[in-house]
């Protein structure tokens, strides 16, 4: 286990989790917000996207009360993304993260906020991150509210940044800075 906060825990993804990812990423309710309903996953696609990849991404399963309910990944932001985001000249330790709750019954219960807060704390303390960034699509207001409750601030609009359901969508670059802890 990487970290735990009350009933929430995050552990590294294991091969035994592939069927969970395939289940979650073939559910239209989840796909509406993550990957797109036109992009369902089967076991092969899960293997290709989540396993046997050495790209510096920590891929994890989120559990609540010992039940797997979602997925989170975090990673040092590479130079190409730093340039896109406007951080090319910043020498701080910069992490990105992406997540979803795959078990719809766990939505709207504050677990997403607990997950984001706990992960940010882990990244700041254990990975020595100075900033944590995400790029949610602008229309995903529920996710953005969750991130803002967790201390993230909108930095800039990223026009046509992500292909979702057949069209490129605008995203917000949002960030949490270490300064937020002392302000």
Structure explained in plain terms:
The chain has 183 residues and is of the alpha+beta class. It has a single domain, classed as Aminopeptidase (3-Layer(aba) Sandwich), CATH 3.40.630. Helices cover 27% and strands 33% of the residues. It has an eight-stranded mixed β-sheet, with helices on both faces. The radius of gyration is 16 Å and the shape is globular.
Which key terms come to mind for this protein?
8-stranded mixed sheet; alpha+beta; GNAT_dom; Acetyltransferase; Aminopeptidase; Acyl_CoA_acyltransferase; 6 helices; antibiotic resistance; 8 strands; transferase; single chain; 183 residues
Spatial order of the strands forming the largest sheet = 1-2-3-4-5-6-8-7
- Unreliable segments (pLDDT under 50, ≥5 consecutive)? none
Distance between the termini: 31 Å
CATH architecture label name: 3-Layer(aba) Sandwich
- At the fourth level of CATH, the homologous superfamily is Gcn5-related N-acetyltransferase (GNAT)
Query: How many β-strand runs?
Result: 8
**Rg (CA only):** 16 Å
CATH topology: Aminopeptidase
- Domains (count): 1
Portion in strands: 25-35%
Q: Biggest sheet, in brief?
A: 8 strands, mixed
Mean pLDDT: 95
Tally of DSSP helical segments: 6
Question: What's the CATH class, please?
Answer: Alpha Beta
Structural class: alpha+beta
């Amino acid at each position: 286990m990487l970290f735990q906060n009350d009933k929430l825990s995050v552990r590294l993804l294991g091969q035994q989790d592939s069927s969970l990812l395939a289940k979650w990423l073939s559910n239209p309710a989840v796909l509406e917000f993550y990957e797109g309903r036109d992009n369902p996953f089967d076991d092969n696609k899960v293997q290709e996207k989540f396993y046997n990849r050495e790209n510096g991404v920590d891929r994890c399963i989120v559990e609540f009360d010992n039940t797997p309910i979602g997925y989170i990944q975090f990673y040092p932001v590479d130079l190409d993304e730093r340039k896109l985001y406007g951080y090319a000249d910043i020498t701080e330790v910069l992490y990105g993260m992406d997540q979803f709750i795959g078990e719809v019954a766990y939505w709207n219960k504050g677990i997403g906020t607990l997950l984001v807060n706990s992960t940010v704390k882990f990244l700041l303390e254990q990975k020595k991150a100075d900033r944590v960034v995400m790029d949610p699509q602008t229309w995903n207001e529920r996710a953005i509210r969750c991130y803002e409750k967790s201390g993230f601030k909108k930095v800039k609009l990223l026009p046509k940044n992500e292909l979702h359901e057949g069209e490129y969508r605008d995203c917000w670059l949002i960030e949490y800075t270490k300064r937020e802890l002392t302000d």
